[in-house]
Write a structure and sequence with these properties.
This protein is an alpha/beta fold. The longest helix has 18 residues.
Length: about 250
């Protein structure tokens, strides 16, 4: 018996061995990426790399698994690594305090990974990751918009060219066609985006509470979406489940 015995009842010894030998990179360890990392490590993943340059903010407490009053101000990759090692001390984990963009992409070798999770929130970063993974033949799954949504039952996995309702997916389809990318596995929602409150008292744009030392503050973002404790986490867990099934050869 071991901590993964319940999972092994479903995946078998061979499946667990495949997971233990696999290495996954998570780009963005926020509301989606944090839960994706959690689901993968609790399933028996052997190695994980965490990429994010952000610090935990008070406004992250509503949806991010690593966000607690005691972790506010910590780097997300550091808090995530500590939590994951507490779940599985045998985990091989590496942290990278980096904001993945075209000007930093050359610093990161994607070829060692069995799977890449794109949970970043900028189109430029997503496209760079996807194009590079496609060129290397590295499997990648990309998170589409989880903000301004309230119904986690509308989340699903699909090819980017089969998506609907998601504004981010629409932009990504257009950009991927221009780059000749024929397919991309994504997690997305068929729920139409909800209109958010325009109350300035609720906006980070006017009342920034980012921890000292934060480089990319909410005030510079074009849009600050509403979020919940259940839609981004469910998307992250759906992504983790899809990766586990693929890495272990399970049928969906």
């Amino acid at each position: 018996m071991n901590q993964f015995s319940r999972t092994e009842l479903l995946l078998g010894a061979e499946g667990m061995a495949k997971l233990a030998a696999s290495r996954v990179a998570i780009f963005g360890v926020g509301g989606v990426g944090g839960y994706a990392a959690e689901g993968l490590v609790r399933s028996g993943l052997g190695a994980i790399d965490l990429f994010d340059d952000d610090r935990i903010c008070l406004t992250n407490l509503n949806r991010q698994i690593i966000a607690t009053r005691s972790t506010v101000g910590q780097y997300k990759v550091d808090a995530t690594a500590k939590r994951l090692l507490d779940i599985n001390p045998q985990l091989r984990v590496e942290t990278h305090r980096v904001f993945y963009m075209p000007d930093t992409a050359d610093e990161i070798d994607l070829s060692p990974y069995d799977y890449v999770v794109d949970a970043v929130d900028t189109v430029t970063a997503k496209l760079e990751l996807i194009v590079r993974c496609n060129a290397l033949g590295v499997r990648i799954i990309s998170a589409m918009g989880a903000g301004n949504k309230l119904d986690p039952t509308k989340l699903q996995i699909a090819d980017i060219y089969q998506t609907s309702m998601c504004p981010l997916a629409r932009v990504m389809r257009h950009e991927l066609r221009k780059r000749g990318i024929p397919r991309l596995k994504v997690a997305y929602s068929t729920e139409p985006p909800r209109k958010t409150s325009d109350d300035p008292a609720l906006s980070c744009r006017y009342h920034c509470i980012c921890p000292p030392g934060t480089v990319r503050k909410c005030t510079v973002r074009r849009d600050i979406p509403g979020s919940t404790a259940f839609v981004p986490p469910v998307m992250g867990l759906i992504i983790a489940g899809e990766i586990v099934r693929e890495l272990t050869g399970q049928k969906s």
